[in-house]
Design brief:
DNA-binding, 7 strands, 46% helix, three-stranded antiparallel β-sheet, four-stranded antiparallel β-sheet, alpha+beta, DNA polymerase, domain 1, DNA recombination, 3 domains, Double Stranded RNA Binding Domain, elongated, Integrase_catalytic, DNA_brk_join_enz, hpI Integrase, Chain A, single chain, 366 residues
Length: 366
């Protein structure tokens, strides 16, 4: 028999069962205005209409105080974040999407804090605490936003796959405002200083030369194998994991010499940086190189000073900036950077020698 609305108490319903017993339930609207049904119990267990009505009022008062009356129940039924992450990864693999950045962000930044706890236990306050922690650790505001966005996406997967019923707490966390007005790049003397500093570390020296010659991102350079390099044509096939594509890079003279000595020692599927069939992890480059860059260029700068700090990605901007300074056409730079949107490349146009600065200086009054 269907639920019957109580004649005495608002929001209370009775359901007469086949065995003659009565089940009591009530309804209310959650903070999002969604109607929620709660079954309280049976008459045979001592539950009454007035008890059900009082329980409903208790729930409504909790909502008015900003609490979730179903929080304990949700936590008991909720899967942990690691479960949702595994579903997220499977879905990304199914659609052949690049995973390198996501895996690194989850393993290094999200999993240690939230991986093993129920999704229903994750609160906006806890996410804000992680946000602040990552800023204090010196990560760029853009990177911190990437971390929080990934966490939000994984929780959305949990909601979609019904691992968790509730609202996404990450939606209540305000993202950090990132100022991309300027991008730091190394001048010629700084490039020489960096290469001279790392020349006794073959792995880091090779990485820096690859980055400065191709403009490839960290994960792109880690993925370069012997078979991707053609010394005769001076080209390297590069994998763009961000855009899920491949493109062609070119080899400058210094890198050509390095690779000429290295390639004969490697097999076709060996990775250039590791020297064997297994690629290096991002941290094997990030940890030692960050220490070097901080010592050379970042003394006295605040950890979150995105405009002025030199980081690994600065090598990519250095590559593009010097192409522009040397008069390379903007569409050529776009192709060499594998930018899908020309607006991403136009930030370098102001560095071009034909930017119009000299022409304007002499205008009308030359």
């Amino acid at each position: 028999m269907a639920r019957v609305k109580s004649k005495k108490y608002q929001g209370v319903y009775l359901n007469k069962l086949a065995n003659g017993d009565v089940s009591y339930s009530f309804t209310y609207k959650d903070e999002g205005g969604k109607k929620v049904w709660v079954t309280v119990g049976k008459k045979s267990a001592g539950i009454t209409e007035i008890y059900t009505y009082n329980k409903r009022n208790e729930y409504i008062n909790k909502i008015r105080l900003g609490e979730d009356p179903l929080e304990a129940k949700k936590i008991r039924k909720s899967k942990v974040l690691d479960d949702a992450y595994q579903l997220y990864i499977k879905d990304r693999e199914l659609h052949n999407r690049a995973l390198h950045d996501e895996i690194a962000r989850y393993e290094n930044h999200i999993k240690p804090t939230f991986g093993a706890i129920p999704i229903a236990s994750i609160t906006p306050e806890a996410i804000q605490k992680l946000q602040k922690q990552k800023i204090d650790e010196g990560y760029s505001l853009k990177t911190v936003n990437h971390i929080i966005n990934l966490l939000s996406t994984i929780i959305n997967v949990a909601i979609e796959k019904e691992l968790f019923k509730g609202n996404n707490p990450a939606k209540k966390v305000k993202r950090l405002k990132v100022d991309n007005a300027r991008e730091r790049f190394l001048n010629v003397d700084e490039v020489k200083l960096l290469l001279d500093t790392v020349k006794d570390n073959p792995m880091i020296y090779l990485f820096c030369n690859l980055a400065l010659s191709t403009g490839g991102r960290l994960e792109t350079i880690l993925a370069i194998q012997k078979k991707d390099i053609d010394l005769n044509s001076g080209t390297i096939k590069l994998k763009d994991f961000k855009n899920n594509s491949t493109y062609t890079g070119f080899i400058n003279n210094n890198l050509h010499s390095l690779l000429g000595d290295l390639l004969p020692k490697l097999k076709a599927n060996d990775y250039i940086l590791s020297g064997n069939s297994e690629p290096l992890t991002a941290r094997q480059i990030q940890v030692p190189l960050k220490r070097i860059l901080d010592n050379l260029f970042n003394k006295g700068l605040k950890p979150n000073d995105r405009k002025n700090r030199v980081v690994i990605h600065t090598l990519r901007h250095t590559f593009a900036s010097h192409l522009a300074i040397n008069g390379t056409p903007i569409y050529t730079i776009q192709r060499l950077m594998n930018h899908k949107d020309i607006n991403m490349t136009l930030r370098y146009a102001k560095l071009a020698p034909d930017s119009g600065r000299e022409a304007v200086k002499g205008l009308f009054f030359s």
